[in-house]
Amino acid sequence: MSPEVILNAGIPCYRLVQNPGEFIVTFPRAYHSGFSHGFNCSEASNIATPEWLLFTGEAEIRRAAENNPPSVSHIQLLYDLALSFSSGWFTLHEFPRVFNCMI
Q1: 102/93 Cα distance (integer angstroms)
Q2: In this protein, which residues make up the domain named JmjC (predicted)?
Q3: Around Cβ 48, how many Cβ atoms within 10 Å?
Q4: Full domain range(s) for residue 12
Q5: DSSP conformational letter for 88
């Protein structure tokens, strides 16, 4: 999709160049995409703090309104997390480490 389509719809659109050693942080309710020209190596790490869960319900409602199924079921994620606690798979002390790995 051309960025002009997004701009013509009145949605702010920005571009940037990521140089070696730089990080890009994408905030909640933001969309990002990228493409490469030629040979490269890349890595993405998607992490979230527990506060991230506050945005999931709102996002799922928006996607459902557009007839878009969620790419990740956050309800299922929380259910599986609760089962993991109850089964003793990990302790509350380990929660931050495991939570960041699951997302």
Answers
A1: 16
A2: 1-64
A3: 14
A4: 3-102
A5: T
